[in-house]
Write a structure and sequence with these properties.
Layout (H helix, E strand, L loop, with lengths): L3 E4 L2 E5 H25 L2 H5 L1 H9 L7 H11 L3 H21 L3 H17 L17 H19 L6 H8 L2 H6 L4 H4 L8 H30 L5 H4 L2 H4 L22 E16 L2 E8 L8 E4 L3 E8 L8 E2 L6 H4 L8 E7 L4 E6 L5 H6 L3 E7 L9 E10 L1 E5 L2 E4 L1 H6 L4 E4 L5 H4 L2 E4 L3 E10 L4 E5 L6 E3 L13 E4 L4 E7 L4 E7 L2 H5 L3 E7 L1
Parallel strand pairs: 3-6, 4-13, 5-10, 11-16, 15-22
Antiparallel strand pairs: 1-2, 3-4, 6-8, 7-9, 9-10, 11-14, 12-13, 16-20, 17-19, 17-21, 18-20, 21-22
Helix pairs in contact: 1-5, 1-7, 1-11, 3-4, 5-6, 6-7
Length: 523
């Protein structure tokens, strides 16, 4: 039985209640100190808005206005909220460890934890890949309530800074102590050996709680940038507004009129749109992804000037060329130029790309484009011609809606987007125009770098498929045709009736990741 001590005429109380409550409060402070340490790390700041966006994703409709309000507040001023979070968590940790201003500490800590539970944790668990649980923040709320109840019942404790400040300045008790005056007047009991043993048991139990909740907190930290940031998918961050229109898909005119064509392509870093209101830190040709469409006539000599204005070695590789790659396709450092020529001997549509190792990384970061070689024996005339370059984006969040490449995803072939001409659902938002009864030609390149395309236009049969751009090799009666990574084909369609005809990669996953658009056919 616990030892009871008189309390200046007031009702007696058990010493070990005070000891255990103080011990649990201190260990809870250790948990908050670890949390505070994590939020001071750069990875937390880099993914602060991402946590909130991902928590909002998938919430029921009636909760969406709540998250929309917070996203509207936090996104423009993320830096302010990051610092407020850091300062609040640090203050709460210190208050719990020292037993300082407990009356206000439990109120502020409980409200702050409730806010985290209902925003960044999304009324569930902390944002981390595969995590789905109650979330430590809600447990924190309950812990603050329990500490407040115990403090109100037990009053002052000699295991707090409040006790010593209250002895020096009595008014501090009214500001810091939770208990009513009659309870605050009690003299705190002394600690017996039995109660010390009980305190040790309490600390051991509290550390068990620490291990359980800290695991979730550390899971959030360890998930960045490789897991948590990587798991912030660009389509989850995409706005509901249409994508920017950007460059047109229409086949550009032939370059030049003589027997020789001069082409200059510049490697540079640029931020490009990959979904509505979502951007990517890309490596590019001429600042766009894909690079500019090049259009030449079969038999012409193409004089290439390649300029590297990037931050690392780059190169260029034309699938339409027959040249020694160790000379023409060699990598050059930033600030240098490379010159070579080739004859466009074979008609069709071809990819060009950076060939600097690791080629996967350079291509997946945006270094590819299309070269169309018109055959000497012309194909049937088309009323409209479009160039579609299919590719994949493998992303991790930098901050907010800005993404960068994730090499682990590239190697694992787990894309976040599969797109036509660099942007998810671009031609769903901006359909390609055509007219019923007229021939439409699609020059389709699969830049990959990894996945094949099962190219299909829903509601249509291809009038002709040209595997190599030679009219004598046309296939007919085809509805879906594979395009391998690095390959290009020409597809002709004639739509008998007006309407909206989806253009897709018939891989259902790829279609859902952005490889879907529309041809809008009018009379």
């Amino acid at each position: 039985m616990a030892t009871l001590h008189p309390d200046n005429g007031n009702a007696p109380r058990s010493n070990w209640h005070v000891v255990i409550t103080s011990a649990v409060r201190a260990v809870f402070g250790v948990i908050w100190a670890v949390d505070a340490y994590l939020v001071w790390q750069p990875a937390f700041a880099a993914n602060f808005v991402g946590y909130l966006r991902n928590a909002a994703h998938g919430q029921p409709g009636w909760l969406q206005p709540w998250f929309a309000v917070w996203l509207g507040l936090v996104t423009p001023g993320a830096g302010l909220f990051i610092w407020l979070t850091r300062l609040l968590e640090t203050a709460i940790a210190l208050g719990l460890l020292l037993g300082l201003a407990r009356r206000w500490l439990y109120v502020v800590g409980g409200l702050f934890s409730l806010l985290i539970w209902s925003t960044a944790e999304g009324f569930g668990g902390p944002y981390a890949a595969g995590a789905a649980n109650l979330g430590p923040a809600l447990l924190y709320v309950l812990m603050f309530i329990a500490l407040g109840v115990f403090d109100r019942t037990l009053g002052r404790t000699p295991y707090s800074l409040d006790y010593y400040l209250g002895r020096r300045w009595p008014r501090w008790q009214r500001a810091a102590e939770w208990a009513p005056p009659s309870v605050r007047e009690r003299t705190p009991p002394r600690l017996s050996w039995l109660e010390q043993a009980a305190a040790m048991l309490a600390i051991a139990g509290a550390f068990g709680f620490l291990l359980g909740t800290l695991r979730s907190a550390l899971q959030v930290a360890s998930a960045t940038p490789e897991n948590a940031a990587a798991a912030v998918a660009p389509l989850e961050l995409a706005a509901s507004a249409p994508t920017q229109k950007g460059s047109e898909a229409a086949l550009p005119p032939l370059l030049g009129t003589g027997d020789r064509v001069n082409i200059t392509l510049t490697a540079s870093d640029a931020t490009v749109e990959i979904a509505s209101d979502v951007t990517y830190q890309a490596w590019t040709f001429d600042g766009t992804v894909p690079g500019p469409v090049l259009h030449v006539r079969q038999g012409r000599t193409v004089n290439v000037t390649f300029v590297n204005q990037g931050k690392m070695d780059h190169s260029i590789d034309f699938h339409a060329a027959q040249v020694p790659p160790d000379i023409a396709y060699r990598s050059i450092p930033p600030g240098q130029q490379l010159h070579f020529s080739f004859v466009a001997q074979v008609p069709g549509v071809f990819v060009y790309h950076c060939g600097t190792p690791p080629v996967l990384l350079h291509m997946a970061n945006g270094m590819y484009g299309a070269l169309v070689v018109d055959p000497a024996r012309p194909l049937p005339p088309a009323a409209a011609s479009y160039v579609l370059v299919q590719s994949e984006w493998y992303t991790q969040q930098v901050r907010g809606s800005l993404m960068a490449g994730n090499f682990a995803k590239m190697r694992a072939v787990t894309p976040d987007e599969v797109v036509f001409n660099g942007v998810a659902f671009k031609y769903r938002d901006h359909p390609l125009p055509a007219r019923a009864g007229q021939r439409v030609r699609l020059y389709v390149v699969d830049a990959g770098p990894n996945l094949p395309s099962a190219f299909h236009v829903i509601g249509a049969i291809f009038e002709a498929v040209y595997p190599d751009g030679d009219a004598g090799h046309a296939l007919t009666g085809v509805s879906t045709y594979p395009v391998a990574p690095g390959q290009g084909l020409v597809f002709d369609l004639i739509f008998p009736e007006p309407g909206e005809y989806p253009i897709v990669d018939h891989s259902m996953r790829n279609m859902g990741l952005g490889a879907s658009g529309l041809i809008e056919v009018s009379r």
